[in-house]
Design brief:
This protein has 8 helices and 4 strands, in the order ααβααβαααβαβ. By secondary structure, the protein is α+β, with helices and mostly antiparallel strands. The protein has one domain: NADH Oxidase (3-Layer(aba) Sandwich). A 4-stranded antiparallel β-sheet has the order 1-2-4-3, sandwiched between helices. Helix 2 packs across helix 7 and helix 3 packs antiparallel against helix 8. The chain starts with 11 loop residues before the first helix and ends in a 21-residue tail after the last strand. The structure holds flavin mononucleotide (FMN). The site of flavin mononucleotide has 11 residues, from strand 3.
Length: 215
């Protein structure tokens, strides 16, 4: 797949600095599943701990999916959920280490790493996850998923859309409503994507001096 086929904006400065949360979208704008898949393809180039890729996405782009999305978000998120072309739920996969061998076997088959290097990865990283407690797995998956979600926000702009990340939803209802195992998958965020209806209000940031230090 040429995942950059539908990118219309290659200006990183514009994409990053002019990203804002849009909460009202033009209704009835359809984004094809092919293009939504391209955006996901781009989003999952994100880094992840040990390349575990502990993310999972559920795309709600038709009436039934959007109704499900509506049913789990808090009312203040109805405007963006009800007007977006698609709402993409980003979840963390707390069992991604079960399939972890696949990615390294593939790298090995591709000739990118030797069998010895692959086995070293298995010995070094897999036990970390196999012996991890629930909170470690959840934290790891949350960080991985957040990395991909950020990329999704940016690539949505590269495709000519605007977006809004949302975590204002009923956490315990998300996975089961989306048809997923709620033991395995934890909600991280949901991204509403579409063509904006209204202009944005630029949000305020703290001064970098107040949130950073050089030591
Ligand atoms: C983890 C997270 C959760 C958020 N949840 C919501 C939400 O539920 N509803 C919403 O309208 N915006 C939500 N936002 C968007 C923030 O309100 C927004 O990013 C922030 O006010 C800064 O504005 P900007 O995105 O326009 O720069 C969320 C953002 C993040 C990172």
């Amino acid at each position: 797949m040429d995942e950059t086929k539908n990118m219309v904006n290659n200006d990183f400065k514009d994409i990053m600095l002019n990203r804002h949360s849009y909460r009202n979208f033009k209704k009835d704008v359809k984004i094809s599943r092919e293009e939504l898949s391209e955006m996901l393809e781009e989003a999952i180039t994100a880094p992840s701990a040990c390349n575990l890729q502990s993310w999972h996405f559920v795309v709600c782009d038709d009436a039934e999916g959007k109704q499900k999305a509506h049913s789990v978000v808090m009312p203040f998120n109805y405007p963006q959920v009800d007007s977006a072309s698609a709402i993409i739920f980003v979840l963390g996969d707390t069992q991604s280490h079960y399939k972890y061998r696949d990615v390294w076997n593939k790298a090995c088959e591709n000739g990118q790493i030797s069998p010895e290097e692959r086995d070293k990865v298995f010995k070094t990283f897999l036990p970390l996850y196999e012996h991890a407690d629930r909170s470690f797995l959840e934290k790891d998956a949350t960080i991985d998923g957040s990395m991909a979600a950020m990329q999704l926000l940016l690539t949505a702009r590269a495709h000519g859309y605007e977006a809004n990340p949302m975590s204002g939803y009923y956490f315990d209802k998300v996975a089961s409503t989306l048809g997923l195992d709620s033991e395995r998958y934890i909600p991280i965020t949901a991204v509403a994507i579409g063509k904006p209806e209204k202009t944005y209000t630029k949000s305020v940031r703290y001064n970098v001096k107040d949130v950073s230090e050089f030591i």
